[in-house]
Specification:
single chain; 153 residues; alpha+beta; Deoxyribonuclease I, Chain A; 2 domains; 6 strands
């Protein structure tokens, strides 16, 4: 969960000297969803101001799944904020390679097996009971029955 929470607190902004009860309330609520505050890899503001009398802030936060070490921090990109006053937050999520074993059944073209398969499939289609296809459910049943019969060929 990430976003602009509009809360300044020393828990996530090292340059802000105050800790407020609303910060505690936010942490309690977020923890109830089994999320915890993510600490960025770089401690820089998330909101930049054009007014020299105001300070830059850390008010955009990211909360990630508790106790998941591969998602333990995020990055703030101040150089990407361009005309916006907010810096984007990003996180890298690793996706593991997964081997999926795929098995294909093939029949050699112009073989006796191919001829038998075609004949059995034609027979399965011819033997479908289509005498009472009065609604969509009966049509779906006929199509599913046909599919099962062809799978068994």
């Amino acid at each position: 969960m990430a976003g602009d929470f509009n809360i300044r607190d020393s828990l996530w902004d090292l340059f802000f000297l105050h800790h407020l009860s609303i910060g505690n309330d936010l942490i309690i609520i977020v923890n109830s969803f089994h999320l915890s505050l993510s600490f960025p890899t770089n401690q820089v503001p998330t909101r930049y101001t054009d007014n020299i009398n105001d300070s830059n802030l850390v008010i955009d936060l990211m909360f990630l799944q508790c106790d998941l070490s591969i998602l333990n921090n995020h990055s703030i990109h101040p150089e990407w904020h361009l005309s916006s006053d907010y810096a984007p937050l990003t996180i890298m999520i690793s996706i593991l390679d997964e081997f999926i074993n795929i098995c294909k059944n093939t029949i050699q073209k112009n073989s006796i097996k191919e001829e038998q398969f075609v004949n059995d499939t034609i027979s399965a289609i011819k033997n479908l009971d289509i005498s009472n296809l009065s609604d969509i459910f009966l049509l779906e049943k006929a199509v599913n029955d046909s599919s099962k019969n062809i799978d068994n060929v």
